[in-house]
C-alpha cells in the first residue's frame, strides 16, 4: 500500500494524477503478491525444507544450499506482510510502529538478503569445484552444512554492523555517542558492497569458470554420485533470477547513498518517483522467496519422488502402506 509523498512545493493536478496512478499500480501489485504469491511461496518454502530434512541421506550439495535459501525465504515471508502494509505505505493507526519494530524488521530483511545472495554465490562456486575436481569431496554435503552455518553467522554480524548506523540515526538524541554516527549513507554503502558487489563478482567469476569447462563426456559422468545434469540448468536460472530480483533494490540504495553524499536530496516529482521505485524494488526482492522454490520444484527431478514418498509415509503412518510392502514380499518370494 502506497500513498503520495507530500512536498513543500505547490504540485499541479497533473503531478498529483501521476502520483495517484503510480500509487495505484504499486498497491495493486502489493495486493496481488500478498493474496497469490505470499501463500504459494510460504507453502513451497516449507515443503522444500521439510522434504529435504526428512531425506537427509539423499541430500546433495545443491539441496543444502537451496534449503538454506528456503529458510531465508521463510524469514522474508514473515517480514513481507508487515513491510507491505506498514507505515511506509499507509497511514493506518493500527500499523503505527515504533522504532524498535522498524529496526527489527530491517535486521531480518538484511539477514535474509545476505543469506540468499551468499548461498547463491557459494552454490555456483561449489558447483564449479564439483565439475572441475570430482571425487575430491571439497563440495560435499558435510562441508556445505558447515558453510551454511558460517553464512548465517556472517549475515548476522554484517547486518548488525551496518544496522548500527540506522540505530544511531533513530536514537541520536538519546545517546551522545551516536551523535557522530548519524550517517545512513554509510549503512547503505556497507550493504551494497557486502550484499551485492562482492557476491556479483564471485558469481561472475564462477560462471566464467563453469562455462570454460568442456562438456565432453568422460567415464566420471557415469558415476552415480555425480550431480545430475539438470542441476547445471537450475544453477544458471536461479543465479539469473536472484540477481534480476535483487538488483533494483540495491540500485535504490545506491541512488540514496549517492544523493546523500553529494548533498542533493530528492524533491518533488523526483522524490515521488524514487519512493515508487523503492517500493517496487522491495516487492521484487520479496518475490525471490516465491520464485526460488517454484524453480527448484519444477527443475529438480528428485524433489517430486521425495515429496510423494513423504506424503505416503504421513498417510500410512508408522505401519506402512500395503502397496509399498507387496513388491518387497514378491521379490522375497
Automatic annotation (TrEMBL):
One Pfam family matching this protein: 7tm_1
Domain G-protein coupled receptors family 1 profile per the UniProt entry, residue ranges: 44-296
Residue ranges crossing the lipid bilayer per the database entry: 31-53, 65-82, 102-125, 146-167, 189-213, 234-255, 275-296
PROSITE patterns membership: G_PROTEIN_RECEP_F1_2 (PS50262)
Major subcellular site: membrane
Keyword Cell membrane (UniProt): yes
Keyword DNA-binding set for record: no
UniProt cross-references to CDD domains, sorted A to Z: 7tmA_GPR146
GO molecular function, one term: G protein-coupled receptor activity
PANTHER family cross-referenced by the UniProt entry: G-PROTEIN COUPLED RECEPTOR 146-RELATED, G-PROTEIN COUPLED RECEPTOR 182 AND ESTROGEN RECEPTOR 1
Name used for this protein in its record: G-protein coupled receptor 146
Species this protein is from: Acipenser oxyrinchus oxyrinchus
Amino acid at each position: 500500500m502506497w500513498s503520495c509523498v507530500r512536498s513543500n512545493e505547490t504540485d499541479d493536478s497533473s503531478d498529483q494524477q501521476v502520483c495517484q496512478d503510480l500509487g495505484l499500480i504499486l498497491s495493486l501489485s502489493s495486493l496481488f503478491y500478498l493474496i497469490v504469491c505470499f501463500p504459494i511461496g510460504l507453502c513451497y518454502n516449507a515443503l522444500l525444507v521439510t522434504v529435504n530434512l526428512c531425506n537427509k541421506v539423499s541430500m546433495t550439495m545443491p539441496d543444502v544450499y537451496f534449503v538454506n535459501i528456503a529458510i531465508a525465504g521463510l524469514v522474508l515471508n514473515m517480514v513481507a506482510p508487515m513491510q507491505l502494509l506498514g507505515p511506509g505505505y499507509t497511514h493506518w493507526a493500527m500499523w503505527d510502529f515504533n522504532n524498535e519494530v522498524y529496526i527489527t524488521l530491517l535486521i531480518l530483511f538484511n539477514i535474509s538478503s545476505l543469506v540468499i545472495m551468499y548461498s547463491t554465490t557459494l552454490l555456483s562456486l561449489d558447483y564449479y569445484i564439483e565439475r572441475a575436481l570430482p571425487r575430491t569431496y571439497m563440495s560435499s554435503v558435510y562441508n556445505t552444512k558447515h558453510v551454511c552455518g558460517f553464512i548465517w553467522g556472517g549475515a548476522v554480524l554484517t547486518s548488525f554492523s551496518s544496522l548500527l548506523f540506522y540505530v544511531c540515526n533513530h536514537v541520536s538524541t538519546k545517546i551522545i555517542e551516536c551523535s557522530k554516527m548519524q550517517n545512513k549513507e554509510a549503512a547503505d554503502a556497507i550493504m551494497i558492497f557486502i550484499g551485492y558487489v562482492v557476491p556479483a563478482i564471485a558469481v561472475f567469476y564462477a560462471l566464467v569458470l563453469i562455462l570454460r569447462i568442456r562438456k565432453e563426456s568422460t567415464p566420471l559422468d557415469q558415476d552415480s554420485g555425480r550431480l545430475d545434469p539438470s542441476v547445471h540448468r537450475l544453477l544458471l536460472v536461479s543465479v539469473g533470477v536472484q540477481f534480476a530480483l535483487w538488483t533494483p533494490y540495491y540500485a535504490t540504495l545506491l541512488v540514496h547513498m549517492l544523493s546523500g553524499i553529494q548533498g542533493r536530496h530528492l524533491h518533488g516529482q523526483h522524490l515521488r518517483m524514487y519512493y515508487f521505485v523503492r517500493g517496487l524494488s522491495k516487492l521484487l526482492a520479496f518475490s525471490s522467496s516465491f520464485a526460488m522454490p517454484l524453480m527448484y520444484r519444477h527443475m529438480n527431478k528428485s524433489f517430486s519422488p521425495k515429496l510423494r514418498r513423504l506424503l505416503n509415509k504421513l498417510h500410512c503412518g508408522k505401519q506402512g502402506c500395503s502397496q509399498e510392502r507387496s513388491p518387497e514380499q514378491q521379490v522375497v518370494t
